[in-house]
Amino acid sequence: MTRILNLTLHEATAEQAAAGLVDGSDRAAIQRLLTFEACPDRATIETRAAALATLARAERAEAAMLGGAPYLMAPLERALSAAGIDPVYAFSVRDSVEVRLADGSNRKTQVFRHAGWVWV
């Protein structure tokens, strides 16, 4: 099974972990690198992408699941590919569940279920 490093702000679900996703040993560093408190310039984006790729190599990832700020994704895909790590995205299906409440109203929720990886 391919070792896929989780490069998102969200912890891996049980379904994703069963499909090879690992959260990595330094979630705090990943979260720091993915979080922008101010509008970044190109150099900042490229630096963050390179740092995430370096972290993924240190984790011995064969692939990395991406998710986050759209302006980071293309540079991150390039940095990972240059490091020999395949960028992937999670594919989820949404299951809608509607529950009738005691007051007669309905509550609708959506549950996202992991259904595979999109390799780019």
Quick summary of this structure?
This protein is 36% helix and 32% strand.
Name the shape in a single word: globular
What is the rounded Rg?
17 Å
Strand content: 25-35%
Sheet with the most strands, sense and barrel status: 5 strands, mixed
Which stretches are low in confidence, meaning pLDDT under 50 for 5 or more residues running?
none
Task: Strand order, main sheet: write it out.
Answer: 2-1-3-4-5
Span between N and C termini?
18 Å
Average of per-residue pLDDT values: 96
Share of helical residues? 25-40%
Q: Please tell me the total number of domains.
A: 1
Class based on secondary structure composition and strand pairing: alpha/beta
Order of helices and strands: EHEHHEHEE
Oligomer: single chain
Number of helices: 4
Count all strands and give the number. 5
Can you characterise this structure?
With 120 residues, the chain is of the alpha/beta class. The chain has one domain (4-89). Helix content is 36%, strand content 32%. Helix 3 crosses helix 4. The longest helix is centred in the middle third of the chain and has 17 residues, at 42-58. The radius of gyration is 17 Å and the shape is globular. The two termini are 18 Å apart. The model has no long low-confidence stretch (mean pLDDT 96).
